[in-house]
């Protein structure tokens, strides 16, 4: 037993020493006080947000406006209010701020979707037009419409990329006897641009630039990495080249919008409905020192002509805004317009 | 009989195989189990210090040893959890427009895999004594992955080449201590890029992460130091048991500084053949 005391003691001393030094070895973490939290929030957007130039936002001026409203005595509610007032200037659907549940404070969502409710779309109304519905994945439900038309409810672009080739083969085979197709994006939650581009490529006959994206990679608002160029071009074993209408509204944003940009490179595609949400960037979640969660869009995404559409959206060729009373009466005018265009 | 029982029976069987009194067994295979404690402040990922625990961590090793040289191969891995030191798991709740409540919790899983190979030569007198010093080098591959640091995947991977100094001290019959220090002089480190997301037109996220986030580094930028203290007791010519404490310190400045302290305490057994 005596022989074991020395190594045991040595081990204890080593572990204890390292434990005591850990804080010094790791550096101090950011303090959790109202000022530090505000500065950190502002600073993360300053480092990472991709649309300051496109939106012509003076982020430093906004710091000078809102920072004086925060001090060491500011409550969680007061801090939340000042932070959301700051973030409102971004007017960005991707932006959110979520306090931890123990604060009892509500979630903040930015952009037009944070300010307004969607009142121009009701999936239950659309279902009344459909027949022979079949779910191919949790993202793709296909149906038939009168007049030999097909309908794809496309809910997102989030599954594993490698699965889409087979899924699209199955979907397009199911719809091969249709003379036209409607792709529904008014319930689309976004996802990955690479996936969106692949699906669009299953409708392509020629190669065209669809959109570009650059990610922030430095402290200046104009610091971006290399431009990524996404192309619409034929992909897969076969393509669907008959007329297609894509249905959009303000809820169609993020990868739903890059999908629209990609699809519109195909000559047989028409966009109907309302303007899209105007938030095309990728966005990443972040921590605040107080444990709250927020999200920062990190990219500068542009259409094929070089326009940045953040806060603007993609305006459809055929603008149709359903009224709530029409939906209440069981009628989706945007869908009916799409069907009429395809007949 | 489950797998662990079979392994235990195999070890027991090996220990009762008769051996000659003067047999020198140059090879050994080892099995270890233990616990990992991780603390990190990765300012690229979060302003919060995160702590992680892996319990159990499993290890397998092979060693070939002569009086003047030794070759070591070690693989270890495990799964645990990782959360901010300040808060632990965090919950976020809301009520949707239709009145339905919704909440989710952020609490990250933590995965660790290490693979190391090293070769050492004994320095000093012509014959080994109670105190022996070894020098040499090792190559090491280390992967840390957590799925929800700031509610986002977090990966740090290092592949390093390090000189090693090791001292063995047989302080009593059948008892020995080992102290080992190594420090990376060159390596590859994979971290998140500035934007924290590796967008690509062609690569999947994993390939893009490694392709965009891997950089060579030398000791002036990549601080990667390992200290190891071990105790071993030779039960028989065929079997030894022991315990090893390992501490690793990692420090890298880009795109924002990361500092990480990873320590493990393992109980080990070795079969010599």
Task: Explain what you see.
The complex is a heterodimer of chains A (343) and B (273). Helices cover 35% and strands 20% of the residues of chain A. With 343 residues, chain A is an alpha/beta fold. In chain A, the strands form three sheets. Chain A has a seven-stranded mixed β-sheet, with helices on one face. Chain A has a four-stranded antiparallel β-sheet with strand order 2-1-12-11. In chain A, helix 2 runs parallel beside helix 5 and helix 9 packs parallel to helix 10. Chain A is elongated and about 80 Å long. Chain A starts with a helix and ends with a helix. The model of chain A has no long low-confidence stretch (mean pLDDT 94). Chain B is mainly beta and 273 residues long. Chain B is built from two helices and 14 strands. In chain B, strand 6 and strand 7 form a beta hairpin. The two termini of chain B are 26 Å apart. Chains A and B meet through helix 1, helix 2, helix 9, strand 8 and strand 11 of A and strand 1, strand 4, strand 8, strand 12 and strand 13 of B.
